[in-house]
Design brief:
40% helix; single chain
């Protein structure tokens, strides 16, 4: 290669490198080139001695001005005076200017379009503070956004930032379609990978109020969620203050690893375990599903924590009577531990907090009432009923079924039977492994076509105490799995209507949209979907200590929510205030938090007859078929 070709290659290489630096660099370079050209041309114009007017030569300052305006404004050429030599010269200057100006306009236009395209891609840094950051995208996101909008109603402005591997405009359009008006909450979408450190930086986790990590809807979901947690908490540029992260883990084997990585900065929700417990508890207690939804959504009353110095030194029994418009659930002690329905003689100390169900965080206030007008003559004792073996039917099968059977074993009396009916042989191996660990249950299996009406008729469904309907999500795509569940559910409802048999039925839908197709007919016909998980994640993202409350409520050990006959607490048939019911429950070491009117159990507009946190001084007339909602150990 000769020197000239080598020089040209180097020059071309340097020019390519310069062009690759971006629009602003090119505009700056073009400006410098224009200035150099103006100076050179001004010198040439002075040296040539062209006359502007007859007998009048041009000076250097005037030469600079003439060259600059002819380069920047081609129209100036029409006003040129002087000889033809000057005109031809200025024409050449104008042509150079046209090239320079056209290039400049092209660069500016391209720069603006590039910037607009970047903004459309959602790759710009989010400059917000105290926002809720959602990492990932799934069907749960619409419920979470809706609940966060409700939670932000008392704020001047709320902000939700979403980072997902989807197009920014598509995300915004889908949110607009499925969520609608976001009120005083702004929703900002960014495109990026939640497991990439650089992409997470775009969403500004450093200034966030809380972070929600959604599952990835694939078999590697847990590992990707753990990687996202690592990317946030181990970032060299992370903030000093602890993060508040809420994440979903499917497999319990991954729980310890995720907790080790996130430590106290992450609240983990075992989704399969959570859904399993919900299905078992709601299948066994009519109306319990409505109570859980009331506690977990932001429409109505929610659970709040508050310090109350005026009650320091009081016992828990005294505290539950101290509130007129709030139902007290338990205490959070100064060390952060939570006790739901602790012993009645537990003393409330300085630094402790009261956990109550109330309309808003500013309504959890002692009433000051000292006379509760308790009617001693209306209190009743509990009649111990003889426990009998239960017959439980599980139709369908998925990975959660083994958790459901284990959970049922905690509740069912000794000698009870679970019959599993599935169109696949999957349950056989799992049941054989489960049998040695079960104390109260005997498990049977039958292979059959579960969407076939004749098969369901032969099962004699009305003879079972509880029925749980599961999706075949390991064998079919989501929509097909839900369709199979829906067909079976409709058959079972038809059988129940024909026999006029009351069924405790809980079914499962994977996609929340399909839940609407099989809308529930009563509080005893509950459909579990990702909505409950979405509600729980939203609540915990707003207050991490709520995780301790729900862990206690969903655990077979300790106190849980029970719905028991009203006759176990008061004599019915005549109006009584709720303080009297509260007193009767307290004598049984329970806390009454509501009641259920059985006559309204099929009316969705009245929450299927369920009332949580009633005003305690209001008079309530209950029948012997109505029930009381309590926190109890059994």
């Amino acid at each position: 290669m000769n020197n000239s070709s080598s020089f040209l290659a180097k020059a071309k290489y340097q020019f390519d490198n310069y062009v690759s630096k971006g629009t602003m660099t090119l505009i700056g370079g073009l400006g410098v080139l224009t200035l150099i050209l103006v100076v050179i041309l001004a010198i040439i114009l002075v040296l040539t001695g062209f006359e502007v007017e007859a007998g009048e030569s041009i000076g250097y300052p005037e030469s600079l001005w003439q060259n600059m305006i002819h380069m920047l404004d081609p129209g100036t050429l029409g006003n040129t005076t002087g000889g033809w030599s000057l005109r031809v010269y200025l024409l050449a200057v104008t042509l150079v200017g046209v090239v320079v100006l056209s290039t400049l306009i092209g660069l500016v236009s391209n720069g603006i379009l590039t910037k607009l395209e970047d903004l459309r891609k959602g790759r710009s840094f989010v400059i917000e503070r105290d926002h809720t950051l959602i990492l990932g995208w799934s069907s749960k996101i619409f419920t979470i956004i809706s609940e966060l909008i409700e939670a932000n109603e008392n704020l001047k402005e709320g902000v939700i930032v979403i980072l997902a591997e989807r197009d920014k405009v598509e995300m915004e359009d889908e949110i607009r379609l499925k969520v609608g008006d976001t009120s005083n909450t702004r929703v900002i979408c960014r495109t990026g990978s939640p497991i990439d450190v650089d992409d997470i930086y775009i969403a500004n986790p450093f200034s966030s109020k809380s972070i929600i990590i959604l599952d990835k809807d694939n078999e590697n979901s847990d590992s990707q969620i753990i990687k996202t947690i690592v990317a946030i908490v181990t970032n060299p540029n992370r903030r000093k203050e602890p993060y508040h992260i809420t994440a979903e883990i499917q497999d319990s084997k991954n729980y310890e690893v995720a907790k080790m990585v996130g430590q106290d900065e992450v609240e983990l929700i075992l989704s399969d375990d959570f859904i399993s417990r919900i299905m078992v508890q709601t299948s066994r207690q009519s109306g319990l599903s409505v109570v859980y939804i009331e506690l977990m959504d932001y429409d109505g009353d929610e659970i709040y924590f508050v310090e109350e110095p005026s009650l320091v030194g009081r016992t828990f029994r005294e505290i539950i009577f101290a509130y007129e418009d709030s139902a007290i659930m338990g205490l959070q002690f100064a060390d952060g531990t939570v006790a739901i329905n602790p012993p009645m003689d537990t003393v409330f100390n300085e630094g402790d907090q009261i956990i109550g169900i109330t309309e808003d965080d500013d309504t959890l206030v002692p009433s000051g009432i000292v006379d509760y007008e308790i009617e001693e003559g209306r209190l009743t004792g509990r009649v111990e009923e003889e426990t009998k073996e239960e017959q439980i039917l599980i139709i369908g099968w998925n990975d959660r079924a083994k958790n459901i059977i284990r959970e049922l074993d905690h509740y069912a009396p000794y000698g009870s039977t679970v019959k599993v009916v599935s169109k696949f042989e999957d349950p056989v191996t799992v049941i054989q492994r489960l049998k040695p660990s079960l104390n109260n249950l005997t498990v049977e299996f039958k292979r059959a076509e579960t969407t076939d009406r004749e098969t369901l008729e032969k099962l004699e469904i009305p003879n079972y105490d509880y029925i749980i309907l599961l999706c075949y999500e390991q064998h079919f795509p989501v929509q097909e799995a839900d369709a199979q569940t829906l067909i079976t559910l409709l058959h079972i409802r038809s059988i129940a209507e024909r026999t006029e048999k009351h069924l405790n039925l809980v079914s499962e839908m994977i996609d929340m949209k399909n839940r609407l197709l099989a809308d529930i007919t009563s509080a005893d016909d509950f459909i579990v979907s990702d909505k409950l998980l979405s509600l729980l994640m939203t609540q915990v993202s707003e207050n991490k200590f709520l995780m301790r409350v729900f862990e206690d409520l969903f655990d077979a050990d300790g106190s849980e929510i029970y719905i028991k006959p009203a006759t176990e607490y008061i004599t019915t048939g005549k109006a009584v205030n709720f303080y009297t019911i509260l007193e009767s429950a307290a004598r049984k070491n329970e806390v009454a938090i509501g009641y259920r009117i059985l006559a309204k159990s099929k009316d969705p507009n009245s929450a299927y007859g369920v009332v949580v946190n009633p005003k305690k001084s209001d008079m309530i007339e209950l029948t012997d078929k109505d029930e009381i909602i309590v926190l109890s150990e059994d």
